[in-house]
Amino acid sequence: MLETGHKAVRLIISGRVQGVWYRGWAVERANILKLDGWVRNRADGSVEGLLVGPENLVDDMIKACWDGPKLAKVDHIDIQAAMGITPKGFTQKPTVDIEERQR
């Protein structure tokens, strides 16, 4: 259960977001904001992330995700509410194969 004033969201970020240091940038930015969660590449070329923390800081991170690192070009961000069950801290996870998620 989330603390009062906190929220959790799952993002799918599409565009030129792989091979441009997007995950490393996201880890740095999220750690500065003291958010919990993770980020990873997906086999379809998008980046997926889970953001958990105070509502205003999660919103700040979502806004920042539209810009990302210098070489990124974000076309779309799909945002869904999430449970927010994750260890403390923000990490980079291995790439997920879309077929693995459907098993």
How does this model look, in words?
This protein is an alpha+beta fold. It has one domain (6-87): Alpha-Beta Plaits. Helix content is 25%, strand content 36%. A hairpin with a 5-residue loop joins strand 2 (36-41) and strand 3. The radius of gyration is 13 Å and the shape is globular. The model has no long low-confidence stretch (mean pLDDT 93).
Topology record:
Layout: E1 6-16, H1 22-32, E2 36-41, E3 47-54, H2 55-65, E4 73-81, E5 90-92, H3 98-101
Summarize the structure.
The chain has 103 residues and is of the alpha+beta class. It has one domain: Alpha-Beta Plaits (2-Layer Sandwich). It is built from three helices and five strands, in the order βαββαββα.
Keywords:
five-stranded mixed sheet, 36% strand, Alpha-Beta Plaits, alpha+beta, 103 residues
Q: For the record, give the distance between the C-alpha atoms at the N and C termini, rounded to a whole number.
A: 26 Å
Low-confidence stretches: none
Query: Globular, elongated, flat, extended or rod-shaped: what is the shape?
Result: globular
Number of helices: 3
Beta-strand proportion:
35-45%
Radius of gyration: 13 Å
Strand tally is 5
Helix percentage range: 25-40%
> What class would the helix/strand composition place it in?
alpha+beta
Order of helices and strands: EHEEHEEH
**Please, how many domains?**
1
**How is the largest sheet built, in terms of strand order?**
4-1-3-2-5
Specify the CATH architecture.
2-Layer Sandwich
Largest sheet: 5 strands, mixed
Indicate the CATH topology. Answer: Alpha-Beta Plaits
